[in-house]
Amino acid sequence: MSTIYDYIGIGLGPFNLSLACLLQPLPNTRGVFLDQRSEFNWHPGLMLDDAHLQTPFMSDLVTLADPTHPLSFLNYAKQQGKLYSFYIREDFFLLRKEYNQYCRWAIEQLDNVAFNQRVSEVHYSEQEQCYLVHCEQLEQGNVTAHSVLKAKKIIVGTGPAPHWPANAQASERCSHASGYLYRKQHIQQAKRITLVGGGQSAAEIYYDLLQDIHQYGYELHWLTRSPRFFPLEYSKLTLEMTSPEYVDYFHALPAEQRDQLIQQQKNLYKGINQSLINDIFDLLYRLRLEAPVNTRLLTHSRLEQVFESADQLRLRCQHTELNQSFEVATDQLILATGYARQWPEFLQPVHARICWDQQGRPDVQRNYSIDVQGNEIFVQNLELNTHGFVTPDLGMACYRNSWLVRAITGVEHYPIEQRIAFQDFTIPSDWQLPAHNNAAEKECSA
């Protein structure tokens, strides 16, 4: 009889990697995390030299679950002989390259991960009461073998896919920000470069290209549909919204209200580091002392359509505040338009075992499960509409994974915080009015 694992994780980004680290030392727990890539590399197309994480170093793979865990960033720095340099540097925010190196180091210590394994289908066996995970072994992109693994629980962490707005498609003239560094030299040969998007990646790319604008002599334009270049909200009481209490509060709201809140809270998780905004302004100021800077920055600008001809792109845009259309001609278009949730096709065979909301989205329960049993299929970074803007936050990975460890093992190996915020997000129980008082007030107002 083949082995039935306690868990199988599908996808190995930072969230599932964190879970792999937390599960590895636990006794009597067997499982594996599968990834179709040949190695871990986190957003390699955006691995700019000066790019930082937007969360402090304690949001590493394990520290907020277990500060004594051997796979913490601080232990990594110690093992690499970099701890004192990190201490002297006095910067809580890791370079993105540094974080990537740390994750790769952690993987080297794990025996519950497997690369070059593409999951094609997941089925459920009523007879064996477990999930059957169909895998394709890859070698340089080619399938060399097939296998079926069995598990009691599945954790899906395959990540989002680049979002392409309007009718834009990848071409020699049009690319997504996720592949920026692979195309940078080609892009800089153009006479006109246009960047669309208003988040951190857009700002990092604009700043990177702006530094060479006089050397190459290109035009560089930055459009965003946002009403301004929003800084990431980073005040301490706002950060308390990345807390267990706020997740509880948000999850209990009606679905329609949650959707409205997510739209209102974009600058809480999609904003630009304020220091980078300042760096961009300062660089523009310095460059203008040398020569006119051939650049334009325009807000309220929604990309409606992309027209491609042999020698250029034409971008049809709408100024949402003026309610006017306009057109931009460009030679290179970079779309820093973020990522969209990508529902894994390999889960189609177990569609009937999954809970869905009225809009056809997986209805993620408070414990991050999506199956009708509420304790078999779990998701990472697919619960934005149910758990709120903390979903993609690296700082909440250990909290979510502590829940998942408990669900997988039945034991709370890592203490799960219940209350960490000074503020309340719902009405305190001793302030609430009896239901009949509220009803009477509504009657009077009518």
From TrEMBL:
Keywords: FAD, Flavoprotein, NADP, Oxidoreductase. Its cofactor is FAD. Pathway: Siderophore biosynthesis. Coiled coil: none annotated. The keyword NADP applies. InterPro entries: FAD/NAD-bd_sf (IPR036188), Lys/Orn_oxygenase (IPR025700). One of its GO terms (molecular function) is oxidoreductase activity. Transmembrane segments: none annotated. PANTHER family: L-ORNITHINE N(5)-MONOOXYGENASE, MONOOXYGENASE. Belongs to the lysine N(6)-hydroxylase/L-ornithine N(5)-oxygenase family. This is Alcaligin biosynthesis protein. The lineage of its organism: Bacteria, Pseudomonadati, Pseudomonadota, Gammaproteobacteria, Oceanospirillales.
